[in-house]
Amino acid sequence: MKPQFAWSNSRSQKSPAAFSEFKLITLFLRLSGISISALQQPSSPWSILYTGLSASIWIISFAFITSEILFCGATNYVETSVVTFNIFVLVSSCVLWVIVQRRSRQFVQLLEDVADTHACVSKKWNLNLRKIIIVLFAYICFIPFVTSLPSLITVQEDSLRFYLHCYLYGTKLTSFGRFGKITLLFTFLTVENFLHFFFPNVVVVLIFFLCECQNQTVASYSEKLPRRLMVDKNNANVDKMVWLYGKLRKDFVNLRDLTSLPISLILTQKFLTLFFSLTVLLSKNTKSIFVEIIESTCYIANAILGLILIIVSASKIQETHSKIREQCLDASLRLPRDSKSLELLYLLKSFVEREDLTMTAAGIVLLKRSLFLKLGASMITYGVIIVQLDSAKKN
Questions:
Q1: Which of 71, 87, 140, 395 has the greatest count of CB atoms below 10 A from its CB?
Q2: Residue 53 has pLDDT above 70, yes or no
Q3: What's the pLDDT at 227?
């Protein structure tokens, strides 16, 4: 059974590199119960059954972890901050799943539009993300197991008793030996880590890929602009460049509108994960629990990787777009001084100077590289406060 994808054969033949790499992402989305079916051809019954089965597994897993969190909160077995953090992660992941599910066809339509615009600008894609995406997906698949491995390597008695008490709702396994309890703990931790890591990471890779495709189109436009304008003899290229910039701008607006809310959810989740994990690592009360230390370290590494992928890929669009302004200024000094050329060029310059291709998270946070500095400063400040409060509590 081959999954159906929502792109036309004619467009996929124009840009086989982009669409073949996009297939990898759609296959991983199907594991989360999200099917990107053909726009004109309905999905096969087997495809619908597979998607429904995947969605059911995820719903059952979400229900299991949610009930475990509520049990911990109701019995006051763990701190309120831990319960609040886990509830927020589950709720945000659930909302993110709903958003991507409802906009799955729009993601495919966006890729088709970007590929079509790129074909008008340049016939060759310099974009080759297949190796990067394969590495990222290998990371996505294996990090839940890697995070759970400490439970097999060295599990202290307090960690074993703590986790199993939460997962089993206070039930004591008197007939299970230590090896059985460790295996059961490893299974529970892996399920929880998959819910925490897998789907948000797939969405991060999807946004990263679409931003890279858009950036490649903007870069191709900035490279072709001066060459086409300089060799223009009949003033035809200026008119075409204005038309192409309109298409490029439309693709970017669709990308920004489509990814703005998912990016805001992902950034909020990653920021909260960083602060929560930093609290666990710097708190002297939890330093004896080895499993929590390893989990927090993996949470921090995963959050930092997601932030790097989204912020860097989104900021590159704005950075590449700034080159078009320089090219317009240079072209305005070299073009023939006839009325049509200058009129169209000034129209293009007005578009470029007025618009700034800057990605945002729900219109609140600008995705620029300076965001890393702000994040680093806030993390250092927060870490110092945690250490001081922990020392004051000890004294």
A1: 140
A2: yes
A3: 65
Model pLDDT for residues 322-348, shown as the tens digit of each residue: 887 777 767 666 666 665 666 666 666
Greater confidence (268 vs 126) lies with: 268
Residue 132 tokens read as 């990067």
Helix (H, G, I), strand (E, B) or coil at 158: helix
More confident residue, 71 or 129: 71
Q: Is residue 204 a contact partner of residue 143, using CB atoms and an 8 Å limit?
A: no
d(CA 276, CA 290) in angstroms, rounded, equals 16
Long-range contact set of residues 47-50: C-beta below 8 Å, sequence gap at least 24: 47/1, 47/3, 47/4, 50/1
Helix, coil or strand: residue 361? strand
Interacting residues of 4 by C-beta distance below 8 A, sequence separation 6+: 37, 38, 41, 43, 44, 47
CB atoms within 10 A of CB 131: 9
Residues 6+ apart with CB under 8 A from 369: 311, 312, 315
User: Tokens for 72?
Assistant: 């911990």
Whole-structure pTM value: 0.83
**Which position has the token pair 């006051």?**
76
Alpha carbon dihedral 277, 282, 285, 287, in 10-degree steps, equals: 80
Q: Is 390 exposed, middle or buried (0-12, 13-18, 19+ CB in 10 A)?
A: middle
Question: pLDDT for 76-130, tens place per residue?
Answer: 777 777 788 888 888 888 889 889 988 888 888 898 888 888 888 877 776 667 7
**178-230 helix and 104-121 helix, angle to the nearest 10 degrees:** 30
